[in-house]
Amino acid sequence: MKRQARLLATTGAVLAVLAAAAFGFERWYEAGPGSTHAYAVVVTRDGREMHRFSLAELQRLHARTVKMQGQDETGPTLLSVLRAAGIDAFSAVTITGLGVRDKGELELERKQVDDRVLLDIAKRGTAKLCGPDIPYASRVRDVIRLAVR
Amino acid sequence: MKGRLTTRELTALALISSLIVLGKSLFRLPIHVPGHSGIFWMALLVVGRGVVRRPTAGTLMGFVSGVLALALAPGREGALVAVKYLAAGAAVDAYLALIGGRLTSVVAAVVVGAVSNTAKLVTSLLLGFALGVPGGYIAVGLGLATITHIAFGGLGGLLGSLVLDRLAKTGLPQFVGLRRPAEAVEP
């Protein structure tokens, strides 16, 4: 029993060290090698880069909260992000994500984009495209590019 | 306990494996916290491993639930999604083999849940690297994700332990072995 108690205590300590190491890795990556590859959302128009939004920049934009699929999502509207990138008129926008947890791409016509389509800032620190008329399965998580035509 | 798994054990493992996959889909809490599904998932793994006291029961549950998840909701990870389930189940078996104990102790169940949910997170990270996801994106929110995986895994373990305790108190013959040493009645 004593051996088991020691092992359980050791495991608790190992898990605590692991959590501290994860925080350390995150900070180190952001400050060091990751500083040039930090999370960003790039807005392009016909292939030309218009603006590269850092997470902090996205968080500084006016955020809206919209209820969709039974839960509140909060973040800047897609229109306000495009406006901040200097885009007022467009016919369609293709939203691209990392594609790890979903299909990673969604194309919306101009008429499908209203003030309820958001770039929700998720707790993990990446943006997620969502809207009340966008089915749950079609949401794009970890958005990295907004390509406007 | 040696020998082949009995039909009752196999049925229990298959049932719990199905509940793991269904629970992960149905009990999606709108709290936007990574790893929160571990509270259901790890509870079921602990209950399954407690009810079927075989050294490979966790791995079997992980394998079956991984195959079911692959069939029902493969996502972008495709076949690799099964690896996450398998890793969580195998972690339960490996850890119990290491501590040489059973899930009759609440502390052991909590730690097993935390270890298993963390194993799932580590596997997800390794799969992310394997799929070519940039390190910067993996690093975002990693500290918080690790904490929440440990916490929710531990809570799941606690929940599983409470369920095992209730099962033991039913007095049904198949659950008698679940009693904690202090509560066990001499024959």
Q: What is the residue-averaged pLDDT of chain A?
A: 86
Q: Considering DSSP H and I runs of 4 or more, what fraction of the residues of chain B is helical? A: 55-70%
Strand content of chain B: under 5%
Based on CA inertia axes, which overall geometry of chain A fits? elongated
What are the secondary-structure elements of chain A, in order, as H or E?
A: HEEHEEHEEEEE
- The N- and C-terminal alpha carbons of chain A lie at a distance of 67 Å
Largest sheet of chain A: 5 strands, mixed
Mean pLDDT level of chain B: 83
- Counted by DSSP, the helix tally of chain A is 3
List the domain count of chain A as a whole number: 2
General shape of chain B: globular
Enter the CATH topology name of chain B. Answer: Arp2/3 complex 21 kDa subunit ARPC3
Radius of gyration of chain B: 17 Å
- Total strands of chain A: the figure is 9
Fraction of helical residues of chain A: 25-40%
- N-to-C SSE string of chain B, H for helix and E for strand: HHHHHHH
Give the SSE layout.
The complex is a heterodimer of chains A (149) and B (187).
Chain A: H1 2-31, E1 40-45, E2 48-54, H2 55-60, E3 64-68, E4 71-75, H3 78-84, E5 92-97, E6 105-109, E7 118-121, E8 127-130, E9 143-148
Chain B: H1 7-26, H2 38-51, H3 57-72, H4 81-99, H5 106-130, H6 135-139, H7 142-169
Helix pairs in contact in B: 1-2, 1-3, 2-3, 2-4, 2-5, 2-7, 3-4, 4-5, 5-7
Tell me what you see in this structure.
The complex is a heterodimer of chains A (149) and B (187). Chain A has helices at residues 2-31, 55-60, 78-84; strands at residues 40-45, 48-54, 64-68, 71-75, 92-97, 105-109, 118-121, 127-130, 143-148. Chain A has 149 residues and is of the alpha+beta class. Chain A has 2 domains: 2-34; 39-148, Oxidoreductase, molybdopterin-binding domain (Sulfite Oxidase, Chain A, domain 2). Chain A has a 5-stranded mixed beta sheet with strand order 2-1-9-5-6. A two-stranded antiparallel ribbon of chain A has the order 3-4. In chain A, strand 3 (64-68) and strand 4 (71-75) form a beta hairpin. Chain B has 187 residues and is mainly alpha-helical. Chain B has one domain (7-173): Arp2/3 complex 21 kDa subunit ARPC3 (Orthogonal Bundle), CATH 1.10.1760.20. Chain B has helices at residues 7-26, 38-51, 57-72, 81-99, 106-130, 135-139, 142-169. In chain B, helix 2 packs parallel to helix 7 and helix 3 runs antiparallel to helix 4 (81-99). The longest helix of chain B has 28 residues, at 142-169. The two termini of chain B are 19 Å apart. Mean pLDDT of chain B is 83; it is low at 181-187. The A-B interface holds A 3-5, 7-8, 11-12, 15, 18-19, 22-27, 29-30, 33-34, 37-39, 70-71, 98-104, 122-126, 142 and B 30, 32-34, 75-77, 95, 98-101, 105, 107-108, 111, 114-115, 118, 128, 131, 133-137, 139-147, 150.
